[in-house]
Amino acid sequence: MFTKILIANRGEIACRVIATARKMGIQTVAVYSEADKDARHVELADEAVLLGPAPSRESYLVADKIIAAARQTGAQAIHPGYGFLSENEDFARRVEEEGMAFIGPKHYSIAAMGDKIASKKLANEARVSTIPGYNEPILTPEEAVEIAKRIGYPVMIKASAGGGGKGLRVAFNDKECFEGFTSCRNEARNSFGDDRVFMEKFVEQPRHIEIQVLGDSQGNVVYLHERECSIQRRHQKVIEEAPSPFISEATRKAMGEQAVALAKAVKYQSAGTVEFVVGKDQDFYFLEMNTRLQVEHPVTECITGLDLVEQMIRVAAGETLTFKQADIKRDGWAIECRINAEDPFRNFLPSTGRLVRYQPPETSMAQGEPERFGVRVDTGVYEGGEIPMFYDSMIAKLIVHGKDRAEAIAKMREALNGFVIRGVSSNIPFQAALLAHPDFATGNFNTGFIAQHYAGGFKAEDVPHADPLFLVALGGFIRRKAREREAGISGQLRGHEVQIEHDYVAVVNLGGGKSEQHPLHISEFAGALGEARVQVGGRDYRIVSNSRLNDVRITGTVNGQPFTAQAERGAAKNPLAYRIQHGGRSVELTVLSPRAAELQALMPYKAPPDTSKLLLSPMPGLLVHLAAEVGQTVQAGERLAVIEAMKMENILSALQDVKVAEILAKPGESLSVDQPILRFA
């Protein structure tokens, strides 16, 4: 067995590999860019080596620097994680030529299956059912349009070396095909150093289901059941679960056996994933094979009890699998939510910056450990750390394991309630809305689920809450608790002591200068026990909580049922206001005396400044292109600028016909949120 390995990656996956290596008694070497000098994986590893500047093409994608770091530190093997060089056959070959082990498949397997064009050809030769398409590299957008017409819209434009939603577009017409090809090719070149693009028919209403396989150097291959990955947004997985609520045992067995046969055909060793698109009648078609560890591997670990990273290390060290197919169990139900730094209320635009607060929910499962039926968090960040603009947007992976799917969903919703993130926006409200959707609860979904149900974007009202008045009652409870503490302060002026009231009014901010008032009556308050009876809207809430006033995460019971919520003072720059969050829903409210609420209703509303004549940057990022000049008239729908953030190109288009009056930012400039780019006449 190895005594030291190098992890050629960053973020949560680097931390994940370190956790298993430490458990196995193996020392670890981290590599990092200048942007990651204070990153968590650097702190956790036994040694760390600087690779170079922040852009991945100058650091994490430079094989020479990584191999030199391994030689320098005496590492015997390299684990590539996922992304970056994990599916680069040249890198895998070079690692082996240097006398080190590549903790992944052999380079010839990567060559055969890691390249999407080559893998489709191989699958066809092996008589595996594949989706119709054009499997040769497409060179120009004009050629792409002609090919799309022959295949028939809609089509999927995919980078051959793509992955993780990068370098992928779906086009429904010539215009989308032309623009999608260009963006797809640019993303592929920037993210993977390979701009080859191919095309295939887009199967409408599909399920995305993948089979986890594991092989050793002696030719043994097993499948570790399936993962349901159909909940996707822009082809980026959002929620994954194992097993799938859709397929039958017969389909599961057939898919697993086909995946094993395909893996054996390329002499596959290590962990890998065979992805299928599955129709409504459970017909399935080979999509691609990912010759690496998947982001969503923890859900498989939960239901099988296997540590996939450990298995990868053991296989790379030449060990034989110690179990057969019949030994692979399927225990309970696991769900993973990807917690990303993005703003769901602003069309999921990237959100970078400092994590002012970062408090994951309490966990009961460690990475790769066999504990069952609990909560696990895989992360590469910490409170006070930075979310840089140079890499992907993942903050953490939240994983739960329940005895069945209903229990897993309930555990995930509660865990999301307790996940505290401040300083950057996160997609937690969106995750909460998805989990509460009745079609998700019944398993009635496909890859078009998000596009279908949130076609107009995601809004606060899209987050259902079974009892919105509970949030108001909780705000009243916290305010009453604060008043009790204020009343106990010594040295108060005689005759002017803080008086404890029973009647309040909760003023809920609805935005745009609008609000609604909810009279509250709070009685039977037992400060020492953290208990009170709150009456609002004709309902009674008996709330018990010993959480402190400065705690963001509030735990307790309401009418005997446990709850986890978040509350903080100073919302909307109002020192008296509270922001209460629960079940994905967030409200801003101020709890006042009845007379103060009456007077506040008379206060004038100050409207925000008019920015309709400005093109504002919707995210922090790099302005890579300006498509307009001063004096130019731009038609509605035409592009104005392109911003690159977190390895994705984001096109800003005109919403209406406009004339450019002034250019306020230059290409190559790093933009902040809401920074003006153009001014219109």
UniProtKB/TrEMBL annotation:
Pfam families named in the record = Biotin_carb_C, Biotin_carb_N, Biotin_lipoyl, CPSase_L_D2, PCC_BT
- Database matches in SMART domains: Biotin_carb_C
What Gene3D superfamilies does UniProt report for this protein, alphabetically?
2.40.50.100, 3.30.700.30, ATP-grasp fold, B domain (3.30.470.20)
Q: Which residues form the Biotin carboxylation domain?
A: 1-455
Required cofactor names: biotin
Q: Which InterPro entries match?
A: Acetyl_CoA_COase_biotin_COase, ATP-grasp, BC-like_N, Biotin_BS, Biotin_carboxylase_complex, Biotin_carboxylation_dom, Biotin_COase_C, Biotin_lipoyl
Claim: Lipid metabolism is one of the keywords in the record: yes
Looking up PROSITE patterns in the UniProt record yields: ATP_GRASP, BC, BIOTIN, BIOTINYL_LIPOYL, CPSASE_1, CPSASE_2
Q: Where is the Lipoyl-binding domain?
A: 606-681
What this protein catalyses is: propanoyl-CoA + hydrogencarbonate + ATP = (S)-methylmalonyl-CoA + ADP + phosphate + H(+)
Provide this UniProt record's keywords sorted from A to Z. ATP-binding, Biotin, Ligase, Lipid degradation, Lipid metabolism, Magnesium, Manganese, Metal-binding, Nucleotide-binding
One MF term in the entry's GO annotations: propionyl-CoA carboxylase activity
Look up the record and name the pathway of this protein: Metabolic intermediate metabolism; propanoyl-CoA degradation; succinyl-CoA from propanoyl-CoA: step 1/3
Q: Where is the ATP-grasp domain?
A: 120-317
Under Enzyme Commission nomenclature, its number is 6.4.1.3
Top EC group: ligase
| Protein name listed in UniProt | Biotin carboxylase
**Species this chain originates from:** Roseateles saccharophilus (Pseudomonas saccharophila)
